[in-house]
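Re: Re: ligand-bound prediction request (bumping)

Still looking for help on this. To restate: I need the protein modeled with magnesium ion bound, output as structure tokens. Inputs repeated here so nobody has to scroll up.
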Amino acid sequence: MQIASQVKFGDIIILSGDLGSGKTKFVEGFLTYFNLQNEISSPTFTIVNEYDTNDFKIFHFDVYRLEDIDEFSAIGGEEYFEKGVSLIEWGEQIESILPPNYTKITFNRDYLDNNIRNISIEFFGNSNYVIN
Ligand SMILES: Nc1ncnc2c1ncn2[C@@H]1O[C@H](COP(=O)(O)OP(=O)(O)O)[C@@H](O)[C@H]1O
Ligand SMILES: [Mg+2]
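Reply:
Sorry for the wait, this slipped through. Here it is.
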């Protein structure tokens, strides 16, 4: 997982795409890089799950069920950003309050092959990962 190997404390990655497009699967792969694969659970009802690596915490958000950005702030959402690495499913919903540096990964089902996902990666501010 090239991105997981490059993340550092404070990084924010938002995961955008329809239901079933592979956002949670991506997080699973990401956690596997840190040997946390057995611990994943969907944060759909808890909004955020927390994982510990040797170097930083990983916060896995799913903000789908939040009514609005105020609700994200009410649960102290922004405070997580400076405490570790944040992966945010449906993060485009809170994009307007994100700090300037973040990465956005957009997932799309392939229209021909149901087993294929097409992704695009956008870097905002000075966020950057090298993808070969
Ligand atoms: N890259 C992929 N290639 C093939 N199937 C995938 C891929 N990513 C996810 N899937 C399948 O799609 C389904 C939904 O994936 P999930 O990650 O839960 O989607 P989301 O979190 O975006 O709603 C799962 O059954 C998963 O196995
Ligand atoms: Mg999901």
